[in-house]
Amino acid sequence: MSHWNPRRTQMKLPPELTINPLFTREGEQNVPRFHIRDQGMLPETAYQIIHDELALDGNARLNLATFVGTWMEPAADLLYAETFDKNIIDKDEYPQTAAIEERCIRILANLWHSPHPMSTVGVSTTGSSEGCMLGGIALKRRWQHARKKQGKPIDRPNIVFSSAVHVVWEKFANYWDVEPRYVNITKERPYLDPKGVRDAVDENTIGVIAILGVTYTGIYEPVAEIAKALDDLQARTGLDIPMHVDAASGGFIAPFLQPDLVWDFRLPRVKSINVSGHKYGLVYPGIGWVIWRKAKDFPDDLVFRVSYLGGNMPTFGLNFSRPGAQVLLQYYNFLRLGREGYYQVQRTCQSVAKLLSREISKMGPFKILTSGTDTPVITWQMKTDYTSKWNLYDLSRQLRTYGWQVPAYSMPPDLEDITVMRVVVRNGFSIDLAHLFLLNLEQAVTFLDSSPTTTPHGSKTDNGFHH
Questions:
Q1: What is the pLDDT of residues 388-436, one digit of tens each?
Q2: Taking CA atoms, which of 47, 180, 303, 333 is between 20 and 30 Å from 187?
Q3: Which reaction is recorded as catalysed by this protein (predicted)?
Q4: Contact at 8 Å (CB) between 398 and 418?
Q5: Which residues are paired to 124 by β-bridges?
Q6: Between 183 and 43, whose confidence is greater?
Q7: d(CA 278, CA 181)
Q8: Strand 243-246 vs strand 270-276: parallel, antiparallel, or unpaired?
Q9: Beta bridge partner(s), residue 250
Q10: For residue 264, is it left (φ>0), alpha (ψ between -120 and 50) or beta?
């Protein structure tokens, strides 16, 4: 079965859209699909064309593949509608939006135990990926400055992370000419191993990336253990290698569900942290944040001061113009939920994940790998002796007939022979929906068990892996 290609698939469609004449005026019945029309059309017609096509999209509430939030309450929707036109970069035109962004930075710096939360550096981003890029750039620039002071070359930087790292870090290494050094995960240690870190780093290492919520499995990497290994290395060799924590998922979970877990700025070696506000920060996409432990941990020469739109404005994000509404929605959640509210939401998500884990483990075909004890993410694989008639890719495809989007995918290098299925439990996925999902999962297994053996197996190219 060939991999789905959206461009190739689109080219199979007729060159014109045919519109239902019940809601069009004369001359609107045919619309070119791939070039702009000479004349405009009624707003109702344009709306209906897009509305009808989007009916073929999946139901966002049934999307168990993505970490990204798909639900906010009506008051937040109203705030979103009132503020979608604000440009976060226009600090002079929207000073109160800028002030609220600054408050969010201070709130996160406090949440993650910065020693100087009121003066450290941070910024909102379009998502966690931009936050990762900024964190990586700062690591590289700090390393370059230190090497130049020592009179040493700066032409061979490297960065260390596990093979289960998010693709954004591979992009960072590629885009900014940094050698990626992977510490492969294993069945026994499916995370960044401190010993592997010690073996991988050297004087050209700009930093080590630890993940608080691995995309593949949802587990936390042992940040404190890695920091201790680097402390020991510095004591023996003098090498002072900083850390960045990619807390895209866990940064809004650990402070509330695991407050005693030491992973953040309580560790002096952790210099920066990024998080996705649109994941367990509970905001619509796309909003992220990156915070540095102290202001001095962010190189000042990465800041651009721009005289623009009425004021002299410092900026160091990769993007310029972008929506301000999501920043306001983040602040709305901080006000609306508080610590207790975030705890209740994340605990409920974790309870649903543990319920799914218990019930799926009772089903004949499956073996649970992660049960939602870190982030509310569960993964499972098929028992090797269950059947050769179908696999998890087939199951993923069958679940789509009920509307559920559940990814199946192979694990990172050295574990490629293991295929897993993952469910991300987010705010809005209730206990009731979980029971309905379990019912449909049982029905899907029954259908596949009763299917003829000639049914072609699905493969990893048939099913997207969503972050």
A1: 999 999 999 999 999 999 999 999 988 999 999 999 999 999 999 999 9
A2: 180
A3: L-glutamate + H(+) = 4-aminobutanoate + CO2
A4: no
A5: 289
A6: 183
A7: 29
A8: parallel
A9: none
A10: beta
pLDDT at 173 over 90: yes
Task: Give the domains, in start order, of the chain with CATH numbers.
Answer: 6-57 (no CATH), 69-467 (3.40.640.10)
Q: What is the predicted pLDDT for the residue at 1?
A: 43
Please state the pTM of the whole predicted model. Answer: 0.92
The distance of Cα 156 from the centroid of its chain, to the nearest Å, equals: 29
Cα–Cα distance between 136 and 346 in angstroms, integer? 29
- Here the tokens at position 417 are 């022979």
96-131 pLDDT, tens digit per residue, is 999 999 999 999 999 999 999 999 999 999 999 999
Q: Are 171 and 124 in contact (CB under 8 A)?
A: no
